[in-house]
Fold CRAL-TRIO domain-containing protein.
Amino acid sequence: MQKIDSDYYPETLHQMFVVNAGSGFKWIWNSVKGFLDPKTSSKIHVLGSNYQSRLLEVIDSSELPELLGGSCTCSDKGGCLGSNKGPWNDPYILKLIHNLEAGCMRETTKPVSEGGERSSSSFRLEQMKVKF
């Protein structure tokens, strides 16, 4: 089942950080991560109460909310928790996604056999060239 899942539903996770994790959560995580693909579980970092230095190693202080040890306040948006700030609004990422979707074309084939028509559909990527 894991093989089918990884073959047909590719992973898109870059990194995930769970902060302020208690000992109970860490125990559960150590049990659960054995069922995940090692590539995926290596991208999930479970941190205890001393997480600030680890987060600042991978996230710029100006992008990390104050409540997590950074300097971002999103004061113009009513605070970081109320803002919609994130990579999903990054113009570079939006352009990349738009170009990838434009290169994806749906192809439908209807093979005819003695028993009648049967239809199947598949997706194929056409020229995955992204121009910036």
Q: What stands out?
A: The first helix runs from residue 2 to 8. The chain has a mean pLDDT of 75. The longest strand covers residues 104-109.
